[in-house]
TrEMBL record:
InterPro entries attached to this UniProt entry: RutC-like_sf, YjgF/YER057c/UK114
Designated name of the protein: RidA family protein
SUPFAM superfamilies: YjgF-like
Top-rank lineage group of the source organism: Bacteria
Similarity field: Belongs to the RutC family.
Amino acid sequence: MKRDAINAKNAPKPRGGYAQAVKLENFERLLFISGQIPTDVDDALPEGFQAQARQVWHNIDAQLKAAGMTKEDIVKVTTFLADRHHTMENREIRSEYLGSLTPAMTVVIAGIFDKAWLLEVEVIAAQ
């Protein structure tokens, strides 16, 4: 698969850890991961934003592995935050997980299904 990060010179620069667009060519598999919530396999909800965010990324990692993929295959991330005050913490934890990977990205401040959940993240991956 050929993958190119696109950041047009005549459009705003990304504000940390993502590409404005990601172009894929010659990919064979495409995986859509539904919004992952911050509970574990036993439905336990961690306390605090950082713990919930790490749980969400753990859940994403589990879905990727179940599909025979890794975080290196992520091409698009959409994050739903319950409160904009978590924006910087979200960026830090996402960067911790993704490292130098720069997928296309969207962050939305939204009412989330369960008000105890502080975020939900959906992902698209390709190989």
